[in-house]
Specification:
The protein is mainly β. It is 5% helix and 38% strand. The protein has one domain: Metal Binding Protein, Guanine Nucleotide Exchange Factor, Chain A. It is built from 1 helix and 10 strands; from the N terminus they run βββαβββββββ. It is globular and about 45 Å long.
């Protein structure tokens, strides 16, 4: 079995591939990641930039991230799916957004960061009704 990380956008116009093992896997709850993803936190697989490649047209957006340094988020130019980041404070890494992985079951967070900014959007409360499929 290959340990390559592969994924794509919603429409399939952009595919990416990263050879080798992940450097780390995490969930980030900073407000920047919340706004970029539209969710309570962003699951991220960190890989070596030297081992990462993609095919297709992307749209890059650079903003000051949670680190206080500029970071670029890359999305599909066609469907807008948020795919991967290239933080300028760490040019040797790429942050793959795990929801776009071909096999998201490979994602296993090693830590969670910016928990001080975590809020109700991330709730997994046992008292809330949960459905394995669409809610009735």
């Amino acid at each position: 079995m290959s340990n390559a990380w592969k994924g794509r956008c919603l429409c399939g116009a952009v595919h990416y591939h990263a050879r080798g093992a992940a450097l780390t896997q995490l969930i980030c709850h900073c407000r920047d990641c919340q706004r970029a993803s539209g969710s309570g936190g962003l699951p991220v697989v960190v890989v070596s930039a030297a081992e990462f490649s993609f095919e297709g047209e992307i749209r890059a957006y650079t903003i000051t991230g949670g680190s206080g340094m500029p970071t670029t988020r890359n999305s599909c130019a066609h469907c807008g799916s948020l795919l991967f980041g290239t933080p300028q404070h760490a040019p040797d890494i790429v942050t793959i957004y795990a929801g776009t992985l071909d096999d998201p079951s490979r994602f296993h967070a090693e830590f969670v960061q910016f928990t001080s900014e975590r809020h109700q959007l991330d709730a997994r409360e046992p008292g809330i009704a949960q459905y394995s499929g669409r809610a009735p």
